[in-house]
Write a structure and sequence with these properties.
Layout lengths: L52 E4 L2 E4 L1 E2 L8 H9 L2 H49 L3 H25 L9 H9 L1 E2 L6 H16 L7 H17 L18 H20 L2 H12 L5 H26 L25 H36 L3 H21 L6 E3 L26 E3 H6 L3 H9 L9 H18 L9 H19 L7 H17 L3 H11 L5 H16 L5 H9 L17 H6 L7 E2 L1 E3 H10 L4 E7 L13 E8 H10 L11 H7 L19 H4 L2 E3 L10 E3 L4 H11 L4 E4 L12 E3 L6 H7 L1 H8 L2 H14 L16 E5 L2 E3 L2 E3 L20 E6 L3 E2 L1 E2 L4 E2 L1 E12 L8 E7 L25 E7 L13 E6 L6 E4 L13 E8 L4 E7 L10 E4 L9 E9 L5 E13 L45 H19 L17 E2 L2 H7 L8 E4 L3 E8 L3 E8 L11 H11 L9 E7 L2 E7 L12
Parallel strand pairs: 7-9, 12-13, 32-36
Antiparallel strand pairs: 1-2, 3-4, 5-6, 8-11, 9-10, 13-14, 15-18, 16-17, 17-31, 18-30, 19-30, 20-21, 22-27, 22-31, 23-24, 23-30, 24-25, 25-26, 27-28, 28-29, 33-34, 34-35, 35-37, 36-37
Helix pairs in contact: 2-3, 2-5, 2-6, 2-7, 2-9, 3-5, 3-11, 4-19, 5-6, 6-7, 7-8, 7-9, 8-9, 8-17, 10-14, 10-16, 10-18, 10-19, 11-14, 13-15, 14-15, 15-16, 16-17, 16-18, 17-18, 21-22, 26-27, 28-29
Length: 1230
């Protein structure tokens, strides 16, 4: 699997990031040179990162998301209510009118392009043929190459200097736009004009490019310009156009335009509709299907009329072809059983070759990105170089082919040196033709007609077909990506038809299918193998060839080719989307997204910036100036009826307001002198609803006086009161499907439990937050689980189940599974346990040394073995659980909550409050260990405050405690918290991690040296306890995992980079486990009895691994830069980079290393960290190994100075990083 994670911009662009820690406070990022040299160059905090830049055409542009959701604010609702039936009918009529105009203009422009290409290329070929007839071959080459260079120069200069977004096919950007990504300048008038002229020049120049992709782009440009009333600088302001002044309707028009473009390219109306549905559109409905079909029907009518005119000879050199471009309907054939084998073989070959083409084209495009970064001149020179190479090959290779005598039985003229024809004479004597010149020295359309020609089994020799196939494979790779309009359809058709015809020739008399039809099937298979289209491609080929008999075998070929291609890499358009850095949301979420909730995703982002319903101007200005967010939740104090029990201070979510609307308010200076809500008429007088559809986000033009800063703005009328929201426990996979299918820009995360004083919105998800690549930067462990072979994982767990002494642990609480014993106030609450219940509370609680009240406990029903009496060995343990503390309205918090290991399950009766822990005075023979999460302050028991974490051993006075707030954790926040507790008997160490995410934090919040060897009895009870005392709160436990281990410390250091020097005890300890999902005793099976089964597992696993290694290879590429995989470097390379570790290249010193600045070819500037063995710590670790392990585990961490390689030769050890003296990355909202 590819692991390239390219940068999302050119080398001369500097990325900017706002890095936030867990509690949302901004954190300074220092110069990498100032890092402590014996520490890894990586930050511990995880934050979702993104970039606002992507390649649109060949231009690096700032991108945003589109608002496909209807903004249901008060202005929209009022306008919708007052619309008359006439206005509704007018709106519908305009939609159909635009659909008609899109088809009309697309058909006219397609005809113009076809006429221009045929005439320009035709006169060029006639001139070349004139010199060939006179045997002036060098002059012919100069004319041919010179003409092609001139046409390429025009197309390239126009794209480079006037419309960079016109380069390429445009289809990936169209897919991105319909997916919800705004692609600037993609559909403007200048782009369309350059696309038209550039397509004519590039195709007429004989480049291995098609006009099909550009025609799709041109169709969408026409649709966009019609919808917005013309170019940006000269837009019509007609009132009826206001209905289409929104992203939602513009999306429908662009979908119609893409279908019309395919129809104009292939004269395939149904194929065009299906192409829009299958390939480019993300959102679809039946009304859009009808209008799209209407557009393609208009295109066909226009093309038909012009074809009739051209058939009368009024179009110059334009061909006399009909509406069917490559008609093979006159060929009749029958199927035989033997024909299925070569048909299936064509599909397999098409899938393999299509995947290879995608793979190598991806490499070439990355190389071209590096060349294009050097400037406009390099882009033009690259295009001219490709044009010159193409011209020399097209003109020179036919000299290698043998001349073939003309068949006197054929009716067609042979030979000919005209601009078209199936039998080009070229350099051959009279009565002979050059089959290779027939394919090469012509236009691409004529080349397809020639190779598709039927009843010509001997026209093309096998050698000529091989030359043609290899040449167009090379040209197809190196031509696409230059700075000209280009399409992929025709180059792929030419390559596929060549190998299809070769296979037909090899079959010979063993098949009844004509070689021309084999060429058609080959072209279809390669397109399916590269583009991964099936239904639309099948219909396009049927309409291209006008032969319905091809339908069954075409369907078989397409399905096989797509299946084979999908086993290796994505489609070519998906690869280009990722390479350009466009944040496209795939239809199917990654499987590991089911393991992550949106609440955890929101925790990895900075805190939400909210506004009040009536907000101060100064606050709005501050928010706009210091953030780049495009929407802000609007909160209000809620008026809640007393019977709801939420108490005072409740907050309601009024809605979501866009940044553009805030800027509009400031520009219009719609300010209030007092804090009040406005009347409906005041708003309508100032803001027409259609005016709010404009993207007005240029805040720099707004000048606000100091007096205006103290005024107020009523945001209620402009706020979308119906934003889409999701619960914090919804999986990311489910949220992604919702976000994509509805076409959202923002998705609000709301808490699962609403409580007084708690914000009703805890996060906002944008497009960038839901991208797999960005999520993996914040949660790198998910990538490991994603890459795990499911079959190997299954067999691994099977072996563990059969060999370990006790089963593993897992817990989901349920009354139907009686594996827990509940005491006191504890009760099942769905699939969770609440240890306490709400109770009446006193307004002024007295000290806590009162009689027992509100105590609850939940213990596992069976005791767990913690001490092996035969060896006097104490077990280590590891525990993970989640809990929530929710206070009652207007009541103080209870005592708190504790994880408890106790020797006496009945010690509950001796407890005297205090988190429900045992009282040693009442139970002197008992023993317990607890980790407390205390929410009440009692100085008499050593409490440091009312929000702390502590470790208790046989006493309610903690042996160690820490202020939770200082660690970014608020036990009273009402949020679900994850806890990890680990005890190592070898290290005599207890460590506690607490976080809001299910990702284990890097550093524990509490770590204490505690020897539990004398505290544990042979069997102990494990569970939780809590108490309310005079307060009132729910103490809820939601998930729990627990396991005991032997003494080896490796067992408790997984998922952690905390290092300590220790001596290996050298003896093996027992592992103890607990399964609280089913209450069973572990299995003990003799190892020798497992040998036959293990042997079978090994053989089967090896076979599956071998099959998967040869199977699917999925490209994951982000951005537009070139990424070098870190590797081992020689000492000579390191010394060469640093001029022999020259002192002048030193940029920093540390305790165990020195950093040098250097330069390595293909990498650029690097920082070389050279380690000094004399200063290594005296233990079984070294700084080089420690840092190397860390860096290889986080190669693409968002705050990581990029790791480039390492060196370890003799006594020299060094790590090589990318040198970024002011390097920062960027975070932005979509």
């Amino acid at each position: 699997m590819y692991k390239e994670k390219e940068r999302l911009m050119e080398e001369d662009l500097h990325q900017i990031i706002n890095s936030c820690n867990y509690n949302g406070e901004e954190e300074e990022q220092g110069d990498p040179e100032s890092n402590t040299l014996n520490q890894p160059l990586v930050k511990a905090n995880r934050t979702l990162s993104s970039t606002p830049l992507a390649l649109v055409g060949t231009k690096v542009s700032h991108i945003e998301s589109l608002d496909y959701e209807i903004n249901e604010n008060d202005l929209f609702k009022h306008d919708w209510r007052k619309r008359s039936k006439t206005q509704v009918l007018q709106y519908i009529f305009l939609k159909w009118t635009f659909a008609c105009l899109i088809g009309l203009f697309t058909g006219l422009i397609a005809t113009l392009i076809n006429l221009a290409v045929e005439n320009i290329a035709g006169y060029k070929l006639l001139a070349v043929g004139h010199f060939l007839a006179q045997e002036r071959y060098v002059t012919g080459l100069m004319v041919f190459a010179g003409g092609n260079l001139g046409l390429t120069l025009v197309a390239s200069v126009l794209c480079v200097c006037f419309a960079p977004t016109a380069a390429g096919p445009g289809i990936p950007e169209i897919k991105a736009y319909l997916n919800g990504i705004d692609t600037p300048n993609m559909f403007g008038a200048t782009t369309m004009i350059v696309k038209i002229i550039g397509s004519i020049g590039a195709v007429a120049a004989g480049l291995d490019l098609g006009k099909e992709g550009p025609l799709v782009h041109i169709g969408t440009c026409i649709a966009s310009l019609l919808g917005q009333g013309g170019p940006d600088n000269h837009r019509l302001k007609w009132r009826w156009l206001r209905y289409f002044n929104n992203d939602r309707d513009r999306r429908d028009l662009i979908t119609c335009g893409s279908a019309a473009g395919v129809c104009a390219a292939f004269r395939s109306p149904v194929g065009g509709v299906l192409f829009a549905l299958e390939e480019v559109a993300t959102w679809w409905r039946s009304a859009l299907l009808w209008r799209t079909f209407f557009s393609t029907a208009v295109v066909v009518v226009v093309l038909r009329e012009f074809i009739e005119i051209c058939n009368s000879g009024k179009c110059g050199l334009f061909g006399r072809g009909g509406l069917i471009m490559f008609d093979v309907s006159h060929v009749t054939y029958t199927y035989h059983a033997t024909d299925i084998i070569p048909v299936m073989l064509i599909g397999v070959i098409g899938g393999v070759l299509g995947s290879l083409y995608n793979h190598f084209l991806h490499k070439v495009l990355r190389l071209y990105n590096l060349i294009n970064q050097k400037g406009k001149i390099h882009k033009v020179l690259l295009a001219l170089t490709v044009s010159l190479f193409t011209s020399v090959c097209l003109y020179g290779l036919p000299f290698l082919a043998k001349c073939t005598p003309c068949d006197p039985s054929i009716e067609e003229r042979c030979p000919t040196n005209g601009r078209s024809g199936n039998f080009k004479q070229f350099h051959c004597p009279k009565g002979y033709y050059s089959d290779l010149a027939t394919l090469l020295l012509t236009t691409n359309d004529d080349a397809v007609r020639n190779i598709f020609s039927s009843n010509t089994p001997n026209e093309f020799s096998m050698g000529s077909l091989w030359i043609f196939f290899v040449l167009y494979c090379i040209l197809g790779l190196f031509t696409f990506g230059i700075a000209t309009p280009s399409g992929l359809f025709l180059p792929i058709i030419l390559m596929g038809s060549a190998y299809g015809r070769m296979l037909g020739g090899l079959m010979g008399s063993y098949t009844s299918i004509d070689q021309g039809l084999y060429a058609v099937l080959g072209a279809a298979s390669l397109m399916a193998g590269s583009m991964r289209m099936t239904v639309s491609l099948c219909v396009i080929f049927l309409e291209l060839t006008n032969n319905l008999l091809l339908l069954p075998i075409t369907m078989i070929v397409l399905l096989i080719a797509k299946t084979v291609g999908d086993s290796f890499n994505p489609s070519i358009y998906d690869i280009i989307l990722h390479l350009k850095g466009l944040p496209f949301l795939e239809a199917n979420p990654e499987p590991w997204m089911r393991n992550l909730s949106v609440g955890e995703l929101g925790d990895a982002k900075p805190p939400v910036v909210t506004l009040q319903g009536v907000e101060k101007v100064a606050k709005i200005v501050d928010v706009l100036r210091n953030t780049t967010h495009n929407a802000f939740p609007v909160l209000d104090e809620a008026e809640v009826p007393p019977q709801m029990g939420l108490g005072t201070g409740a907050i309601e979510l009024h809605g979501l307001i866009l940044r553009a609307h805030l800027v509009k308010v400031l520009k219009k200076r719609w300010f209030l002198t007092e804090k009040r809500r406005t009347e409906e008429w005041e708003v309508r007088e100032k803001f027409p609803w259609d005016e709010l559809a404009e993207r007005e986000d240029n805040f720099d033009d707004v000048a606000i006086t100091s007096s205006e800063m103290q005024m107020y703005v009523d945001l209620h009328p402009l706020t979308n009161t119906t934003p889409y929201t999701v619960m914090e426990n919804m999986s990311v996979a489910k949220a992604l499907v919702l976000f994509r299918q509805v076409g959202l820009r923002h998705l609000l995360i709301v808490p699962r439990i609403q409580a007084s004083g708690r914000s009703p919105v805890i996060g906002i998800l944008t497009r960038q937050d839901l991208r797999a690549y960005n999520i993996l930067q914040a949660f790198p462990h998910l990538e490991k689980s994603k890459e795990m072979n499911p079959f190997l994982l299954f067999f691994f767990h099977l072996i563990l189940l059969l060999t370990q002494d006790f089963p593993a642990l897992s817990l989901r609480f349920s009354p139907s599974q009686p594996n827990l014993t509940l005491y006191g106030d504890a009760f099942f609450r769905g699939h969770t346990i609440s240890l306490t219940q709400q109770q009446p509370c006193f307004p002024s609680p007295s000290p806590r040394n009162c009689s027992s009240s509100g105590i609850g406990r939940a213990l596992y029903v069976y005791p767990i073995k913690f001490l092996d009496l035969s060896t006097n060995t104490t077990a280590s343990f590891s525990c993970r659980f989640s809990f929530t503390i929710i206070a009652s309205p207007s009541c103080p918090f209870g005592d708190g909550f504790a994880f408890l290991i106790a020797s006496n399950a009945d010690s509950f009766t001796f407890s005297n409050g205090f988190l429900g822990l045992p009282d040693p005075a009442l139970d002197p023979l008992g023993s317990f260990v607890a980790v407390e999460f205390d929410t009440a302050f009692d100085p008499s028991h050593g409490d440091i405050n009312d929000n702390h974490v502590g470790i208790d051993v046989n006493s309610i006075v903690s042996v160690a405690s820490v202020d939770a707030i200082s660690k970014g954790i608020d036990l009273k926040s009402g949020r679900e918290m994850m806890v990890w507790i680990e005890y190592s008997d070898v290290l005599k160490l207890i460590r506690v991690w607490v976080g809001y995410s299910r990702v284990k934090p890097k550093s524990p919040v509490l770590s204490a040296q505690v020897d539990l060897a004398g505290k544990f009895r042979e069997y102990m009870h494990v569970g939780f306890s809590a108490s309310n005392a005079l307060g009132s709160a729910f103490h809820i436990v939601e998930r729990w995992k627990f396991r005991t281990f032997g003494s080896h410390p490796d067992a408790v250091q997984e998922d952690d980079d905390w290092l300590v020097c220790f001596e290996n005890p050298g003896n093996t300890r027992h592992r103890y486990g607990l399964d609280v999902r089913v209450s069973v005793v572990g299995l003990r099976i003799p190892f020798w009895s497992l040998l036959p089964g293990l042997a079978a597992v090994v053989v089967l696993t090896a076979f599956i691994a071998y099959s998967l290694i040869r199977g699917k290879k999925r490209i994951v590429c982000e951005g537009v830069g070139l990424n070098r995989v870190p590797g081992r470097l020689s000492l000579a390379e390191i010394k060469s980079a640093t001029s022999g570790f020259n002192e002048n290249t030193i940029v920093g010193h540390g305790a165990s290393a020195t950093v040098y600045r250097g330069s390595i070819p293909m990498v650029g500037s690097v920082a070389v960290k050279r380690f000094d063995r004399a200063h290594w710590p005296q233990c079984n670790r070294n700084p080089f190994t420690t840092e190397f392990t860390t860096m290889t585990g986080y190669l693409r961490h968002k705050n990581l100075v990029q790791f480039q390689g390492w060196c370890s030769e003799g006594t020299e050890t060094a790590l090589v990083f990318e040198y970024l003296p002011n390097g920062r990355t960027s975070v932005d909202d979509a």
